[in-house]
Design brief:
Blueprint lengths: L1 H14 L9 H11 L18 H30 L7 H34 L7 H10 L7 H13 L15 H12 L1 H4 L23 H7 L6 H7 L4 H6 L11 H14 L4 H24 L11 H6 L3 H8 L10 H21 L7 H38 L1
Helix pairs in contact: 3-4, 3-5, 3-12, 4-5, 4-6, 5-7, 6-7, 7-17, 12-15, 13-16, 16-17
Length: 404
């Protein structure tokens, strides 16, 4: 490592202003700071000694995503092998097949999005934004394993350019870039990102398991008519609470496994990278929303049966946990104040229930809830800070009167 560090130091003048490779400095800087702690220090006080920086923070998020990636590969491969009746499939067989399905999607996301990141960095003459390390990984995990690679490239391009770079790059974006990319694909190419046929890879012309259905639990629950039993309908579709908790079902690559998501949440909370207040607020809002909907369903039996789905089912069905842990906690697009984080997370959970239950065309709700609250986050923080200033001003006035 010492040899590599010395080699980079010798090359650095070529990329500095006036050097032959000046325009490629963002690429050199990204490589140097990814491998080593930057040698630059502040020139005046105060001095804060800390080995952590933005790249290390983003790498921590990547580590937290690894359980979801591995589980997503296994589940995608397992679903493929089951419906295509692959004989004597083992754990390794499922993982290898899943890697063949998932890794090209991840690579397409990083390559296409990375090109735009480098292009904007070179044109604007600034460092490559380390936030793309996470965006390039989060986006593929929200997609089905059957998504065409060209759509992955188009989606991440939209997310990077429209969701981030038009605002000025990382730190200035209002919306979460990965969710922006996902929303674009959902509305631009709904056939490839929604419906029963996109969640499981099927070999064309191959033998398909009898009675195979690619319907997801949310799709089944949303279609139960008024007066029906939504839990019974899920059970008939092959989904119990325990099976949905286990996550061995069709769905987006990284969003079905509850245990891997909880492991990732623990990593983010322990390291202080993820905002636990947003996660807890999201669960609280989901509980309040589902409880209110249960009350409405009991009072008005003519309402759709989805209103009667209990809180603990809403918690494991769909992509709520993945969204609240990895998407909603984006430090740029989320609320920054402690009180604001509770409000921000709670409203995401509440809106998720409202959209799920009342919108038959989109029974998920998490993506739209987070994007909507991304827009509202600055207003929430403004209100929190304003109330705090008013309380302090009121306290100072009382203190001055008491002292006088």
């Amino acid at each position: 490592m010492k040899f590599m560090m010395n080699h980079l130091e010798k090359m650095k003048p070529l990329f500095k202003p006036g050097g032959k490779l000046e325009k490629l400095y963002p690429l050199f800087e990204a490589q140097e700071t990814f491998m080593f702690t930057p040698p630059t220090v502040t020139k005046s006080s105060p001095h804060i000694r800390d080995a952590n920086d933005m790249k290390r923070t983003m790498i921590t998020v990547i580590f937290a995503l690894i359980p979801c990636i591995l589980f997503g590969m296994y589940n995608a491969g397992r679903q493929h092998n089951i419906v295509n009746m692959v004989q004597n499939a083992t754990l390794m067989t499922h993982l290898l097949q899943g890697a063949l399905l998932v890794m090209p999607i991840i690579m397409a996301s990083y390559v296409a999005g990375g090109i735009w990141e480098v292009l904007f960095a070179v044109v604007r003459k600034h460092e490559i934004n380390e936030g793309f390390l996470v965006t390039g990984m989060l986006f593929p995990l929200t997609l089905p394993p059957t998504i065409p690679l060209w759509q992955v490239a188009v989606g991440i391009s939209f997310g990077v350019i429209i969701g981030k770079e038009v605002f000025g790059g990382t730190g200035f974006n209002v919306l979460n870039p990965a969710l922006t990319a996902r929303a674009f694909l959902f509305f631009a190419y709904p056939q490839q990102i929604s419906g029963d046929s996109v969640w499981t890879s099927v070999v064309k012309g191959g033998a398909i398991m009898d009675g195979f259905s690619g319907a997801t639990p949310l799709a089944i629950a949303a279609q139960v008519p008024s007066g029906g039993n939504v839990i019974e309908a899920l059970r008939e579709g092959g989904f119990t609470w325990m099976s949905m908790f286990g996550g061995l079902e069709g769905g987006s690559i990284g969003e079905t496994g509850v245990i891997p998501i909880l492991i990732g949440a623990a990593i983010l909370i322990i390291t202080g990278v993820g905002a636990w207040r947003i996660m807890a607020g999201g669960v609280l809002g989901l509980f309040i929303g589902s409880t209110l909907m249960n009350f409405v369903g009991n009072a008005q039996p003519e309402f759709k049966a989805f209103t009667m789905l209990p809180f603990h089912y809403h918690l494991v069905v769909g992509s709520f946990l993945f969204g609240i842990v990895f998407m909603a906690t984006d430090p740029v697009s989320a609320s920054a104040t402690n009180a604001g984080k509770w409000v921000y997370g709670s409203l995401i959970g509440l809106l998720t229930i409202v959209i799920r239950v009342t919108n038959p065309a989109y029974p998920e709700g998490v993506m739209l809830s987070i994007l909507f609250m991304n827009v509202m986050a600055p207003l929430i923080d403004h209100i929190v800070v304003s109330l705090h200033v008013k309380r302090r001003a009121s306290y100072l006035r009382r203190f001055s009167r008491a002292k006088g």
